[in-house]
Specification:
The protein is of the alpha/beta class. It has 2 domains: 233 residues, TIM Barrel; 66 residues, Non-ribosomal Peptide Synthetase Peptidyl Carrier Protein, Chain A (Orthogonal Bundle), CATH 1.10.1200. The chain is 40% helix and 14% strand. The chain contains 13 helices and 10 strands. Helix 1 crosses helix 10 and helix 6 packs parallel to helix 7. The structure holds flavin mononucleotide. The site of flavin mononucleotide has 21 residues, from strand 4.
């Protein structure tokens, strides 16, 4: 598929997930067939300050090409200033987060709160479109507490958005219930720009249901947790995965940037996700939760996977 002038080899997108889709995880997902990936959401305003932690979120690896950055905020001026920064020039697509439901985000007027304020959402989008020649895309939900998705999508298209990702839920639903595929289909009918459908795609059958809405692309979030290889399954190219090797690769890539201490705590959730579908892993899940040292966790995992094979 094509977003403005950016060619995307395929239609499977890895969802941006804060605190999860680090550059190593995204690179693994791409190696398993994800066609496109965005950084996790990064505050447009925070990027204006020289903060290492924020700037680290912009790290990408060479196999993540083309690649997008996702920005959040509500101040057009911050978006305008950030788009001309050197660090953003390597990105092929600029995405604006208008879907995040988290209380700490919406209380500032960011994320899905923008769906209650068309005027500010429009100004933010315009600030981006007018300050970059790259495609600007928006990730939205169906609305905040009521479905405004068709009107909102039309407004975004009219103001220069090059594609939309639609997560088929309202903000007030957070992640409960099922994604509303009919609503996604209606958005697709409303606009001419590409629409990427998002919500609850975890296997071939849910992928098929999402594609039946007529969307141009499909974005996978939680289905990829502990499973960056889900993309090869969705593509019908299942391959035998050496999970321990995968985990080590994930860690080794991150070790080039992050300290052992940071990774010992950060990697824990990933390790538990990697063990999600493993039979007989309950005991080592508890051991991993209690272990403070990442190398010790790796030894526990090595022992477990050796016994499994
Ligand atoms: C832990 C977590 C972090 C997320 N962070 C972001 C984010 O940074 N930006 C964003 O647009 N959506 C974020 N999302 C929402 C996902 O991108 C996606 O829209 C949502 O999970 C629904 O897709 P799924 O059913 O495939 O998981 C996050 C979701 C989760 C579970």
């Amino acid at each position: 598929m094509k977003i403005k002038d950016v060619n995307i080899n395929g239609n499977l997108f890895l969802a941006p997930m804060a605190g999860v889709t680090d550059f190593a995880f995204r690179s693994l997902a791409r190696s398993f067939g994800a066609s496109f990936s965005y950084t996790e959401m990064v505050s447009a305003k925070a990027l204006l300050y020289d903060n290492k932690k924020t700037k680290d979120l912009l790290i990408t690896l060479p196999n993540e090409t083309p690649v997008g950055v996702q920005l959040f905020g509500h101040e057009p001026e911050a978006f305008k200033k950030v788009l001309i920064q050197e660090e953003l020039q390597k990105f092929d697509i600029i995405d604006i987060n208008m879907g995040c439901p988290a209380p700490k985000i919406v209380k500032n007027g960011d994320g899905s709160k923008l769906m209650t304020d068309f005027e500010t959402a429009q100004k933010v989008l315009k600030a981006c479109v007018e300050n970059t020649s790259k495609p600007v895309t928006v990730k939205m939900r169906l609305g905040y507490s009521k479905d405004v998705s068709e009107d909102f999508a039309k407004m975004l298209e009219d103001n220069g958005a090059s594609a939309l990702t639609v997560h088929g839920r309202l903000r007030e639903e957070f992640y409960s219930g099922e994604a509303n595929l009919e609503a996604i289909a209606r958005v697709k009918q409303t606009v001419k720009i590409p629409v990427i459908g998002n919500g609850d795609v975890t296997n071939k059958s849910s992928l098929e249901s999402m594609l039946q809405t007529g969307v141009d692309g499909v974005m996978v979030g939680r289905g990829a947790l502990g499973k960056p290889y889900i993309f090869s399954e969705l593509l019908g190219k299942e391959q035998k995965v050496d999970k321990f090797k995968l985990i080590k690769e994930h860690i080794e890539l991150l070790e080039k940037v992050y300290s052992e201490e940071y990774l010992s705590s950060y990697m824990k959730k990933h390790l538990l996700w990697y063990l999600k579908d493993e039979k007989g892993a309950n005991k080592i899940k508890i051991q991993i939760c209690n272990e403070k040292n990442l190398q010790a966790c790796l030894l526990i995992l090595q022992d477990f996977f050796e016994k499994c094979s």
